[in-house]
Amino acid sequence: CLTRDGTRLRNETVEAATKTATETEGEDTGTEDHLLSPPAVTETEIETETEGDEDTDRKEALYAQGGIRSYDNRSTEQRPFDRRYCDGYRRLDPSRDRDREREPHGAAESYYPRNFTPNLYDYRRGREREREREESYRRKGSRRKHKRRRRRTRSYSPSSSLLLSLSFFNNFRSIAPGVDEIVSTLGEGTFGRVMQCIDHRRGGAAVALKIIKNVEKYKEAARLEINVLEKINEKDPDNKFLCVQMYDWFDYHGHMCISFELLALSTFDFLKENNYLPYSIGQVRHMAYQLCLSVKFLHDNKLTHTDLKPENILFKREERTVKSTAVRVVDFGSATFDHEHHSTIVSTRHYRSPEVILELGWSHPCDVWSIGCILFEYYLGFTLFQTHDNREHLAMMERILGPVPSRMIRKTRKQKYFYRGRLDWDESSSAGKYVRENCKPLRRYLLSEAEEHHQLFDLIESMLEYEPTKRLALADSLKHPFFENGAAAEAGSSKSWEGNRDISR
Fold this sequence. Notes:
One of its GO terms (biological process) is regulation of RNA splicing. This protein has helices at 11-31, 43-52, 54-60, 79-92, 94-100, 105-110, 123-140, 216-235, 267-273, 281-300, 354-357, 365-380, 390-401, 406-411, 430-438, 451-463, 474-477, 481-484; strands spanning 154-156, 180-188, 192-199, 205-212, 246-252, 255-261, 303-304, 313-315, 321-324, 327-329, 336-337, 418-419, 422-423, 498-502. It is of the alpha+beta class and 505 residues long. Among the domains are: 172-261, 2-Layer Sandwich (Phosphorylase Kinase, domain 1), CATH 3.30.200.20; 265-491, Transferase(Phosphotransferase) domain 1 (Transferase(Phosphotransferase), domain 1, Orthogonal Bundle). Strands 1-5-6-4-3-2 form a six-stranded antiparallel β-sheet, sandwiched between helices. It has a two-stranded antiparallel sheet with strand order 7-11. The protein has a two-stranded antiparallel ribbon with strand order 8-10. Helix 12 packs antiparallel against helix 16 and helix 13 (390-401) runs parallel beside helix 15 (430-438). The longest helix is centred in the first third of the chain and has 21 residues, at 11-31. Mean pLDDT is 73; it is low at 1-12, 24-52, 58-95, 97-114, 116-124, 141-154, 158-179 and 488-505.
């Protein structure tokens, strides 16, 4: 096999890179990954399932009360207490880990280096995304009654430095200088596999190569993601706005392959490795500024991410001790341009805005809501809305943020959640007791009365406005007083952004 300039490619590189997709292609053609992908379910089925087990789930998902510590003033003597608290938190809130660990999809999309444990994806989110995409493909007519044999095609991005002359692949068995080589498998899921590779044409730089199965629905999703990533590269060639960089893409005999920069742990995995101990206020400030800057860039270019969460925000440095909280935003598989069709349901449950739950239509403000939930999680170490039920989710919102505006209640077609203009919620039920005991007004979650802590919660409150039109715009968020004390515009150049958080123990 030859590269674009005639350099030979190691034979085992492409063989290993496409092994998983080739082995499973026969299954996927007929069943569309019935072994790896959970079955698509309707919203009614999800609600019935969650209501049936609500008592058990609520008992398991109780929040830990008190004892929350940050990385300020950590010492060896404090660690036993911290471990007890964090172990308890995991026991009381197992649904998050359980849902994420059923499906190794997220590990592949996070592009971890070889010495990191891959992150596991959110099972329920996978089912929701699968359902929405299948509906989209049916509308577009991509699902055919009779499948025709696929032709082997070769296409590539004009700037590709990893372009393969694939028709000559089997003719070369020797190893030539400057070849690309596979280091390890980073993860795999329903879509295919992600490999860590060495690109010698980039000076031996490590890259993450995402190989998509030769299944039409996954290929179509990959094409949509490539379209978004190419737009980002065009508008931000110097990567000033902190979105993951796509280096190249190509089609190998029907397998879409995308080359990304290699990143480190996600901000969620870092919390998990540290027993869910929250980030310090300085680290929250720096990550919040970068996140607002990056997503503002997307909004300025008429793009909504729609799936912002700690799992999709990755640290840039490839090391076990994070001394700088420089991050990158990843996973643009669900990103939607303003002019494109907007699916009814977007976002992972815990970070889903009220206008999405009530099916009132969504735009850029749904990303702002997600950021507000993310900052709360960074600050406290647990999710703000720990639920998998729409009615309970709305009840939690009312408990924490106040009543849902009457205008939104009148406008929504989800009237089954309301009665006489108010949320239909029985506070005397077991569900009502759970929400009452484990949710409280937002400001009561403050860990300190210091000014910077109040400034953070003022920012979060502005991002968690019910009405999308009243929600804080990201252009204004960058001017918020919370960022003034930290010199956030320097984006990590100051030592005030640095911390020494060791996750190797």
